[in-house]
Design a protein that fits this description.
Blueprint lengths: L7 E3 L13 E4 L18 E3 L7 H19 L20
Parallel strand pairs: 2-3
Antiparallel strand pairs: 1-2
Length: 94
């Protein structure tokens, strides 16, 4: 790991702060150094991109694999996701 290595964390909670979705990581490698053998596999959802920033494709992947599953495990009522610093990415659950 060099001094310029970076990761992005994706955080999501409900408005009261009682339900916290799993923290997801965006890194530059498919398998983070902290999870390479002989260590345990990373328990957090990990995504990788060369620029470690969120884009439309990665956002949709996170939304469907992490966010929707976490919310649906807790409730079936209609939910709204308010985003900050996402740029032009948009995705709606149908």
């Amino acid at each position: 790991m060099t001094a310029k290595s970076r990761v992005t964390l994706i955080l999501a909670v409900n408005s009261t702060g009682l339900h916290k979705n799993p923290v997801a990581i965006i890194g530059k490698t498919e398998v983070p150094m902290c999870s390479k053998p002989p260590r345990e596999a990373c328990q957090l959802p990990c995504f990788y991109r060369s620029s470690v920033s969120m884009d439309d494709v990665l956002y949709k992947k996170w939304f469907n694999t992490v966010f929707v599953r976490a919310v649906r495990a807790r409730t079936r009522i209609l939910c709204v996701l308010i985003l900050d610093q996402i740029g032009r990415a948009s995705c709606r659950e149908r």
